[in-house]
Design a protein that fits this description.
The protein is mainly α. It is built from 17 helices and four strands. A four-stranded mixed beta sheet has the order 1-2-4-3. Strand 3 and strand 4 form a beta hairpin. The termini are far apart.
Protein backbone atom coordinates (compact mmCIF):
# COMPACT_ATOMS: atom_id res chain seq x y z
CA UNK A 1 0.00 0.00 0.00
CA UNK A 2 1.33 3.42 -0.95
CA UNK A 3 1.94 5.64 2.09
CA UNK A 4 0.57 9.13 2.58
CA UNK A 5 4.11 10.52 2.40
CA UNK A 6 4.68 8.81 -0.96
CA UNK A 7 1.38 10.17 -2.29
CA UNK A 8 2.41 13.63 -1.11
CA UNK A 9 5.69 13.28 -3.00
CA UNK A 10 3.80 12.22 -6.14
CA UNK A 11 1.49 15.23 -5.76
CA UNK A 12 4.40 17.61 -5.18
CA UNK A 13 6.65 16.45 -8.01
CA UNK A 14 3.79 15.88 -10.42
CA UNK A 15 2.06 19.12 -9.45
CA UNK A 16 5.16 21.25 -9.95
CA UNK A 17 5.86 19.56 -13.28
CA UNK A 18 2.25 20.18 -14.34
CA UNK A 19 2.71 23.84 -13.39
CA UNK A 20 5.85 23.95 -15.54
CA UNK A 21 3.92 22.48 -18.48
CA UNK A 22 1.15 25.05 -18.11
CA UNK A 23 3.71 27.85 -17.94
CA UNK A 24 5.44 26.52 -21.06
CA UNK A 25 2.11 26.44 -22.91
CA UNK A 26 1.22 29.98 -21.83
CA UNK A 27 4.67 31.20 -22.78
CA UNK A 28 4.54 29.72 -26.29
CA UNK A 29 1.07 31.12 -26.99
CA UNK A 30 1.86 34.54 -25.54
CA UNK A 31 5.19 34.78 -27.37
CA UNK A 32 3.65 33.76 -30.69
CA UNK A 33 0.98 36.48 -30.50
CA UNK A 34 3.46 39.14 -29.34
CA UNK A 35 6.09 38.33 -31.98
CA UNK A 36 3.53 38.43 -34.78
CA UNK A 37 2.14 41.71 -33.46
CA UNK A 38 5.68 43.12 -33.34
CA UNK A 39 6.71 41.63 -36.69
CA UNK A 40 8.31 44.85 -37.96
CA UNK A 41 10.28 45.43 -34.76
CA UNK A 42 11.52 41.83 -34.71
CA UNK A 43 12.64 42.07 -38.35
CA UNK A 44 14.25 45.51 -38.12
CA UNK A 45 15.60 45.78 -34.58
CA UNK A 46 16.51 42.14 -33.99
CA UNK A 47 17.47 41.51 -37.64
CA UNK A 48 15.42 38.31 -37.73
CA UNK A 49 14.39 37.85 -41.34
CA UNK A 50 11.72 35.28 -40.52
CA UNK A 51 10.03 35.73 -37.11
CA UNK A 52 8.29 32.38 -37.59
CA UNK A 53 11.71 30.74 -37.39
CA UNK A 54 12.19 32.28 -33.95
CA UNK A 55 8.83 30.89 -32.83
CA UNK A 56 9.57 27.45 -34.27
CA UNK A 57 12.90 27.33 -32.45
CA UNK A 58 11.31 28.21 -29.12
CA UNK A 59 8.56 25.65 -29.71
CA UNK A 60 11.02 22.86 -30.51
CA UNK A 61 13.20 23.60 -27.48
CA UNK A 62 10.24 23.86 -25.12
CA UNK A 63 8.54 20.65 -26.24
CA UNK A 64 11.76 18.65 -26.02
CA UNK A 65 12.60 20.03 -22.59
CA UNK A 66 9.08 19.34 -21.32
CA UNK A 67 9.16 15.75 -22.53
CA UNK A 68 12.52 15.19 -20.86
CA UNK A 69 11.31 16.69 -17.58
CA UNK A 70 8.16 14.55 -17.50
CA UNK A 71 10.16 11.41 -18.21
CA UNK A 72 12.54 12.31 -15.38
CA UNK A 73 9.71 12.85 -12.91
CA UNK A 74 8.03 9.57 -13.88
CA UNK A 75 11.33 7.67 -13.58
CA UNK A 76 12.11 9.11 -10.13
CA UNK A 77 8.63 8.42 -8.80
CA UNK A 78 8.66 4.90 -10.23
CA UNK A 79 11.91 4.13 -8.41
CA UNK A 80 10.90 5.68 -5.10
CA UNK A 81 7.20 4.83 -4.82
CA UNK A 82 7.65 1.24 -6.04
CA UNK A 83 10.04 0.55 -3.18
CA UNK A 84 13.02 0.01 -5.49
CA UNK A 85 14.89 2.88 -3.82
CA UNK A 86 14.51 1.23 -0.43
CA UNK A 87 15.66 -2.11 -1.87
CA UNK A 88 18.78 -0.48 -3.32
CA UNK A 89 19.62 1.10 0.04
CA UNK A 90 19.05 -2.23 1.80
CA UNK A 91 21.39 -3.93 -0.68
CA UNK A 92 24.03 -1.26 -0.05
CA UNK A 93 23.84 -1.78 3.72
CA UNK A 94 24.35 -5.52 3.15
CA UNK A 95 27.70 -4.86 1.43
CA UNK A 96 29.30 -3.93 4.74
CA UNK A 97 30.71 -0.71 3.29
CA UNK A 98 30.98 2.26 5.65
CA UNK A 99 27.85 4.40 5.67
CA UNK A 100 29.66 7.29 3.99
CA UNK A 101 30.81 5.07 1.15
CA UNK A 102 27.29 3.68 0.74
CA UNK A 103 25.91 7.21 0.38
CA UNK A 104 28.55 8.17 -2.19
CA UNK A 105 27.85 5.00 -4.20
CA UNK A 106 24.12 5.78 -4.14
CA UNK A 107 24.80 9.30 -5.40
CA UNK A 108 27.10 7.99 -8.12
CA UNK A 109 24.39 5.63 -9.30
CA UNK A 110 21.88 8.48 -9.42
CA UNK A 111 24.32 10.66 -11.41
CA UNK A 112 25.01 7.94 -13.97
CA UNK A 113 21.31 7.08 -14.29
CA UNK A 114 20.48 10.74 -14.80
CA UNK A 115 23.14 11.12 -17.46
CA UNK A 116 21.93 8.03 -19.30
CA UNK A 117 18.37 9.31 -19.20
CA UNK A 118 19.27 12.79 -20.47
CA UNK A 119 21.84 11.76 -23.11
CA UNK A 120 19.32 10.91 -25.88
CA UNK A 121 17.54 14.23 -25.34
CA UNK A 122 20.82 16.15 -25.35
CA UNK A 123 21.89 14.41 -28.54
CA UNK A 124 18.56 15.14 -30.24
CA UNK A 125 18.69 18.78 -29.17
CA UNK A 126 22.25 19.18 -30.48
CA UNK A 127 22.14 17.23 -33.72
CA UNK A 128 18.50 17.75 -34.70
CA UNK A 129 17.07 20.92 -33.15
CA UNK A 130 20.23 23.05 -33.04
CA UNK A 131 21.31 21.69 -36.43
CA UNK A 132 17.94 22.47 -38.01
CA UNK A 133 18.12 26.10 -36.91
CA UNK A 134 21.76 26.58 -37.90
CA UNK A 135 23.35 26.76 -34.45
CA UNK A 136 25.19 23.45 -34.11
CA UNK A 137 28.91 23.27 -34.86
CA UNK A 138 29.58 20.21 -32.69
CA UNK A 139 30.82 16.86 -33.96
CA UNK A 140 29.71 13.53 -32.54
CA UNK A 141 33.19 12.74 -31.08
CA UNK A 142 33.26 16.14 -29.34
CA UNK A 143 29.75 15.60 -27.97
CA UNK A 144 30.72 12.18 -26.62
CA UNK A 145 33.86 13.63 -25.08
CA UNK A 146 31.84 16.36 -23.35
CA UNK A 147 29.39 13.75 -22.05
CA UNK A 148 32.20 11.62 -20.63
CA UNK A 149 34.15 14.50 -19.09
CA UNK A 150 30.98 16.07 -17.69
CA UNK A 151 29.94 12.78 -16.10
CA UNK A 152 33.35 12.23 -14.53
CA UNK A 153 33.33 15.78 -13.14
CA UNK A 154 29.81 15.34 -11.75
CA UNK A 155 30.85 12.10 -10.06
CA UNK A 156 34.05 13.57 -8.63
CA UNK A 157 32.65 16.87 -7.41
CA UNK A 158 29.32 15.42 -6.28
CA UNK A 159 31.12 12.62 -4.45
CA UNK A 160 33.42 15.13 -2.76
CA UNK A 161 30.56 17.26 -1.43
CA UNK A 162 28.34 14.30 -0.52
CA UNK A 163 31.24 12.56 1.20
CA UNK A 164 32.01 15.66 3.26
CA UNK A 165 28.39 16.09 4.36
CA UNK A 166 28.03 12.39 5.23
CA UNK A 167 31.26 12.46 7.22
CA UNK A 168 29.78 15.35 9.19
CA UNK A 169 26.60 13.30 9.75
CA UNK A 170 28.69 10.46 11.16
CA UNK A 171 31.14 12.52 13.21
CA UNK A 172 28.84 15.29 14.45
CA UNK A 173 25.30 13.89 14.59
CA UNK A 174 23.97 16.93 16.46
CA UNK A 175 25.71 19.57 14.36
CA UNK A 176 25.95 18.09 10.88
CA UNK A 177 23.43 20.49 9.27
CA UNK A 178 25.59 23.46 10.26
CA UNK A 179 28.80 21.76 9.16
CA UNK A 180 27.16 20.51 5.96
CA UNK A 181 25.88 24.01 5.19
CA UNK A 182 29.37 25.46 5.76
CA UNK A 183 30.88 22.80 3.48
CA UNK A 184 28.44 23.58 0.65
CA UNK A 185 28.95 27.35 0.95
CA UNK A 186 32.72 26.86 1.12
CA UNK A 187 32.58 24.61 -1.92
CA UNK A 188 30.64 27.30 -3.80
CA UNK A 189 33.39 29.78 -2.99
CA UNK A 190 36.08 27.34 -4.04
CA UNK A 191 34.34 26.66 -7.34
CA UNK A 192 34.39 30.38 -8.16
CA UNK A 193 38.18 30.04 -8.25
CA UNK A 194 38.50 26.49 -9.58
CA UNK A 195 35.88 26.68 -12.34
CA UNK A 196 37.50 29.36 -14.55
CA UNK A 197 41.03 28.03 -14.06
CA UNK A 198 40.54 24.25 -14.06
CA UNK A 199 37.09 23.11 -15.18
CA UNK A 200 36.10 25.50 -17.98
CA UNK A 201 39.42 24.93 -19.86
CA UNK A 202 38.53 21.23 -20.05
CA UNK A 203 35.79 22.18 -22.51
CA UNK A 204 36.96 25.37 -24.21
CA UNK A 205 40.09 27.32 -25.07
CA UNK A 206 40.43 30.76 -23.47
CA UNK A 207 42.72 33.25 -25.14
CA UNK A 208 43.64 36.49 -23.35
CA UNK A 209 42.71 39.56 -25.37
CA UNK A 210 46.16 41.10 -25.60
CA UNK A 211 46.56 43.14 -28.79
CA UNK A 212 44.69 44.91 -31.57
CA UNK A 213 41.52 46.94 -31.80
CA UNK A 214 39.62 44.69 -29.43
CA UNK A 215 42.31 45.06 -26.76
CA UNK A 216 42.22 48.84 -27.19
CA UNK A 217 38.44 48.75 -26.78
CA UNK A 218 38.77 46.59 -23.66
CA UNK A 219 41.33 48.91 -22.08
CA UNK A 220 39.16 51.91 -22.88
CA UNK A 221 36.09 50.50 -21.16
CA UNK A 222 38.13 49.33 -18.16
CA UNK A 223 39.47 52.85 -17.77
CA UNK A 224 35.98 54.33 -18.01
CA UNK A 225 34.65 51.84 -15.47
CA UNK A 226 37.47 52.53 -13.02
CA UNK A 227 39.19 49.14 -13.27
CA UNK A 228 42.75 48.16 -13.90
CA UNK A 229 42.74 46.11 -17.10
CA UNK A 230 42.73 42.57 -15.74
CA UNK A 231 41.71 39.19 -17.12
CA UNK A 232 39.51 39.38 -20.20
CA UNK A 233 39.34 36.26 -22.36
CA UNK A 234 37.84 35.26 -25.66
CA UNK A 235 36.36 31.74 -25.59
CA UNK A 236 36.07 29.48 -28.62
CA UNK A 237 32.32 29.00 -28.24
CA UNK A 238 32.01 28.62 -32.03
CA UNK A 239 33.63 25.20 -31.71
CA UNK A 240 30.27 23.92 -30.48
CA UNK A 241 27.61 26.48 -31.36
CA UNK A 242 26.96 29.82 -33.01
CA UNK A 243 25.07 31.05 -29.94
CA UNK A 244 26.67 34.12 -28.35
CA UNK A 245 27.05 35.29 -24.76
CA UNK A 246 29.44 36.73 -22.18
CA UNK A 247 29.90 36.15 -18.46
CA UNK A 248 31.75 37.26 -15.35
CA UNK A 249 33.13 34.68 -12.95
CA UNK A 250 35.40 34.45 -9.91
CA UNK A 251 36.71 36.85 -7.32
CA UNK A 252 40.05 38.29 -6.25
CA UNK A 253 42.86 37.41 -8.64
CA UNK A 254 40.72 34.66 -10.16
CA UNK A 255 38.02 37.00 -11.46
CA UNK A 256 37.69 37.23 -15.20
CA UNK A 257 35.36 38.35 -17.95
CA UNK A 258 34.76 35.89 -20.79
CA UNK A 259 33.50 36.96 -24.22
CA UNK A 260 32.31 34.29 -26.64
CA UNK A 261 34.12 34.52 -29.98
CA UNK A 262 30.69 34.43 -31.60
CA UNK A 263 29.72 37.58 -29.71
CA UNK A 264 32.92 39.32 -30.80
CA UNK A 265 32.12 38.45 -34.42
CA UNK A 266 28.48 39.52 -34.22
CA UNK A 267 28.78 42.90 -32.48
CA UNK A 268 30.44 46.22 -33.25
CA UNK A 269 33.16 47.46 -30.88
CA UNK A 270 30.90 49.85 -28.92
CA UNK A 271 28.33 47.12 -28.33
CA UNK A 272 31.10 44.79 -27.11
CA UNK A 273 32.30 47.54 -24.78
CA UNK A 274 28.78 47.91 -23.39
CA UNK A 275 28.54 44.15 -22.77
CA UNK A 276 31.93 44.23 -21.06
CA UNK A 277 30.84 47.17 -18.86
CA UNK A 278 27.66 45.26 -17.98
CA UNK A 279 29.70 42.25 -16.87
CA UNK A 280 32.13 44.44 -14.90
CA UNK A 281 29.16 45.89 -13.01
CA UNK A 282 28.56 42.52 -11.39
CA UNK A 283 31.90 42.93 -9.62
CA UNK A 284 31.75 46.70 -9.16
CA UNK A 285 28.32 46.50 -7.50
CA UNK A 286 29.19 43.42 -5.40
CA UNK A 287 26.56 41.29 -7.15
CA UNK A 288 28.73 38.19 -6.84
CA UNK A 289 28.82 38.42 -3.05
CA UNK A 290 25.16 39.35 -2.75
CA UNK A 291 24.16 36.35 -4.82
CA UNK A 292 26.41 34.12 -2.76
CA UNK A 293 24.85 35.49 0.44
CA UNK A 294 21.34 34.85 -0.86
CA UNK A 295 22.35 31.34 -1.90
CA UNK A 296 23.82 30.72 1.56
CA UNK A 297 20.54 31.72 3.20
CA UNK A 298 18.63 29.44 0.84
CA UNK A 299 20.99 26.56 1.62
CA UNK A 300 20.53 27.16 5.35
CA UNK A 301 16.78 26.69 4.91
CA UNK A 302 17.36 23.53 2.86
CA UNK A 303 19.66 22.02 5.49
CA UNK A 304 17.17 22.86 8.24
CA UNK A 305 14.50 21.04 6.23
CA UNK A 306 16.82 18.06 5.67
CA UNK A 307 17.54 17.96 9.40
CA UNK A 308 13.82 17.71 10.10
CA UNK A 309 13.34 15.00 7.48
CA UNK A 310 16.24 12.82 8.65
CA UNK A 311 15.21 13.04 12.31
CA UNK A 312 11.56 12.17 11.55
CA UNK A 313 10.81 8.47 11.62
CA UNK A 314 8.00 8.76 9.08
CA UNK A 315 10.41 8.99 6.16
CA UNK A 316 11.98 5.62 6.92
CA UNK A 317 8.65 3.87 7.41
CA UNK A 318 6.94 5.52 4.43
CA UNK A 319 9.60 4.53 1.90
CA UNK A 320 10.78 1.23 3.40
CA UNK A 321 14.25 2.52 4.28
CA UNK A 322 16.78 1.09 6.72
CA UNK A 323 17.92 3.54 9.36
CA UNK A 324 20.59 5.19 7.22
CA UNK A 325 20.66 8.98 7.24
CA UNK A 326 21.92 9.18 3.66
CA UNK A 327 18.81 7.33 2.47
CA UNK A 328 16.53 9.85 4.17
CA UNK A 329 18.63 12.70 2.76
CA UNK A 330 17.90 11.45 -0.75
CA UNK A 331 14.16 11.54 -0.08
CA UNK A 332 14.45 14.95 1.57
CA UNK A 333 16.13 16.38 -1.52
CA UNK A 334 13.25 15.09 -3.66
CA UNK A 335 10.85 17.15 -1.56
CA UNK A 336 13.18 20.18 -1.39
CA UNK A 337 13.73 20.48 -5.16
CA UNK A 338 10.15 21.30 -6.19
CA UNK A 339 9.67 23.48 -3.10
CA UNK A 340 12.64 25.57 -4.22
CA UNK A 341 11.12 25.80 -7.71
CA UNK A 342 7.95 27.26 -6.20
CA UNK A 343 9.98 30.01 -4.50
CA UNK A 344 11.71 31.02 -7.75
CA UNK A 345 9.55 34.14 -8.30
CA UNK A 346 10.90 35.45 -5.00
CA UNK A 347 14.53 34.40 -5.35
CA UNK A 348 14.76 35.66 -8.95
CA UNK A 349 14.05 39.22 -7.83
CA UNK A 350 17.62 39.73 -6.65
CA UNK A 351 19.10 38.67 -9.98
CA UNK A 352 16.61 40.83 -11.89
CA UNK A 353 17.61 43.85 -9.82
CA UNK A 354 21.29 43.12 -10.44
CA UNK A 355 20.78 42.91 -14.19
CA UNK A 356 19.04 46.28 -14.22
CA UNK A 357 21.89 47.77 -12.19
CA UNK A 358 24.39 46.30 -14.64
CA UNK A 359 22.49 47.78 -17.60
CA UNK A 360 22.58 51.17 -15.88
CA UNK A 361 26.30 50.84 -15.22
CA UNK A 362 26.92 49.99 -18.88
CA UNK A 363 24.97 53.03 -20.08
CA UNK A 364 26.71 55.32 -17.58
CA UNK A 365 30.13 53.93 -18.48
CA UNK A 366 29.53 54.36 -22.20
CA UNK A 367 27.92 57.76 -21.76
CA UNK A 368 24.91 56.62 -23.80
CA UNK A 369 22.44 53.75 -24.01
CA UNK A 370 22.65 53.09 -27.75
CA UNK A 371 25.56 50.65 -27.47
CA UNK A 372 23.91 48.52 -24.79
CA UNK A 373 20.64 48.60 -26.71
CA UNK A 374 22.33 47.33 -29.87
CA UNK A 375 24.04 44.61 -27.86
CA UNK A 376 20.72 43.43 -26.41
CA UNK A 377 19.07 43.46 -29.82
CA UNK A 378 21.92 41.45 -31.30
CA UNK A 379 21.84 38.88 -28.49
CA UNK A 380 18.10 38.37 -28.90
CA UNK A 381 18.21 38.17 -32.67
CA UNK A 382 21.31 36.01 -33.10
CA UNK A 383 20.17 33.54 -30.44
CA UNK A 384 16.52 33.50 -31.59
CA UNK A 385 15.55 34.20 -27.98
CA UNK A 386 11.90 34.71 -27.16
CA UNK A 387 11.71 38.50 -26.62
CA UNK A 388 8.20 38.37 -25.14
CA UNK A 389 7.92 35.77 -22.36
CA UNK A 390 4.61 35.38 -20.56
CA UNK A 391 4.80 37.29 -17.22
CA UNK A 392 4.06 34.15 -15.18
CA UNK A 393 6.68 32.14 -17.06
CA UNK A 394 9.20 34.97 -16.64
CA UNK A 395 8.53 35.12 -12.90
CA UNK A 396 9.45 31.45 -12.44
CA UNK A 397 12.22 31.06 -15.01
CA UNK A 398 13.94 34.30 -15.91
CA UNK A 399 16.86 35.75 -13.98
CA UNK A 400 17.18 38.55 -16.58
CA UNK A 401 14.40 40.97 -17.48
CA UNK A 402 12.97 40.47 -20.98
CA UNK A 403 15.15 42.22 -23.55
CA UNK A 404 12.44 44.60 -24.84
CA UNK A 405 11.78 45.69 -21.26
CA UNK A 406 15.51 46.36 -20.78
CA UNK A 407 15.65 48.36 -24.00
CA UNK A 408 12.58 50.41 -23.08
CA UNK A 409 14.01 51.12 -19.64
CA UNK A 410 17.38 52.22 -21.05
CA UNK A 411 15.68 54.56 -23.51
CA UNK A 412 13.48 56.10 -20.85
CA UNK A 413 16.35 56.68 -18.43
CA UNK A 414 19.22 57.56 -20.72
CA UNK A 415 17.66 59.09 -23.81
CA UNK A 416 14.76 58.51 -26.15
CA UNK A 417 14.95 59.25 -29.85
CA UNK A 418 18.58 58.51 -30.37
CA UNK A 419 18.95 55.82 -27.76
CA UNK A 420 19.01 52.97 -30.20
CA UNK A 421 20.05 52.31 -33.75
CA UNK A 422 18.36 49.81 -35.97
CA UNK A 423 20.58 46.83 -36.77
CA UNK A 424 19.95 47.66 -40.39
CA UNK A 425 21.35 51.16 -39.97
CA UNK A 426 18.30 53.40 -39.41
CA UNK A 427 19.60 55.97 -36.92
CA UNK A 428 16.20 56.66 -35.41
CA UNK A 429 15.67 53.00 -34.54
CA UNK A 430 12.30 51.27 -34.36
CA UNK A 431 10.03 51.78 -31.38
CA UNK A 432 9.92 48.96 -28.88
CA UNK A 433 6.38 47.59 -29.24
CA UNK A 434 3.92 48.15 -26.38
CA UNK A 435 3.66 44.40 -25.80
CA UNK A 436 7.31 44.44 -24.72
CA UNK A 437 6.28 45.74 -21.33
Amino acid sequence: MVSTAALALVALLGGVQLLETVLDHLNLRYGAVAVRDADEWVRNALDVGDPEKMLAYQRSKTLLSGLQSWLGVVAVLAVVVSGLYGEVVTALTATGLPSVAQGVVLLAGAVVAGRLLSAPFDAYETFVVEERFGFNNQTVPLWLRDLLVGTVLALALGGLVAGGVLLAVEALPALWPVVGWALVVGFSLLMMVVYPRVIAPLFNDFEPIEAGDLRDAVENVFERAGFACEQVYEMDASRRSSHSNAYFVGFGRAKRVVLFDTLVDQMDREAIQAVLAHELAHWKRNHIWKQLGASAVQMAVVFAFLWWVTTSQWVYAAFGLPGETYAALGIGLLYAGPLLSLTAPLTNQLSLAHEREADDFAAETMGEAASMTRALETLAGENLSNPFPHPAYAAFHMTHPPIPERIRRLREQYGGDGASEDVGGDESGPDVPPSAT
